[in-house]
Amino acid sequence: MLLLLLGIIFLHLAALVLLFVSTIVSVWTTGESTTSDLWINCTTSGCSPASTGEWIQSVQAVMILSIIFSCLSLFLFFCQLFTLQKGGRFFLTGTFQILASLFVMSGAIIYTVMSPEWVPEGNSFGYSYILAWVAFPLALISGLIYVILRKRE
């Protein structure tokens, strides 16, 4: 049981780290001389704030919400680990983690659909964008494991 708990915590922390990195690092799109992310656009001549369009603000919001819900889920897991009765399920923890995964998926989908209007020709998606997509199944899987998991002595 201890190995299972450590594995679940490791999976959760891996998803949380991916969420943090994908939200903070400025490589959602990259080109020969430019990089862009949710917050700032950089070229070889300098950096400027990201577009103020509603779609980029919604991506920013859902990515931040995914981090908040994933952190809350980890906190709730530790609280429920010590307070939940034997045989109880971690429904609240799982729900928060599944919501975090849905938020990151929504943000990545919005960015995928709207970025062709904003990203210059020749640019491609960067590693932060890919990390956001990798964080989605990790968070979803850990949320489903939390829902299925029962507390044992």
Describe this protein's structure.
It is a single chain. By secondary structure, this protein is of the alpha+beta class. The chain has a single domain, classed as Butyryl-CoA Dehydrogenase, subunit A, domain 3, CATH 1.20.140.150. It contains 4 helices and 5 strands. It has helices at residues 2-24, 54-83, 91-114, 127-148, and strands at 29-30, 34-36, 40-43, 46-49, 124-125. It has a 5-stranded antiparallel beta sheet. Helix 1 (2-24) runs antiparallel to helix 2 and helix 1 (2-24) runs antiparallel to helix 4. The longest helix is centred in the middle third of the chain and has 30 residues, at 54-83. It starts with a helix and ends in a 5-residue tail after the last helix. The relative contact order is 0.22.
- Strand tally: 5
Distance between the termini: 9 Å
CATH architecture annotation name: Up-down Bundle
Radius of gyration: 18 Å
Transmembrane segments: 58-78, 90-114, 126-149
Family: Belongs to the PMP-22/EMP/MP20 family.
Protein name: Peripheral myelin protein 22
Membrane topology: Multi-pass membrane protein
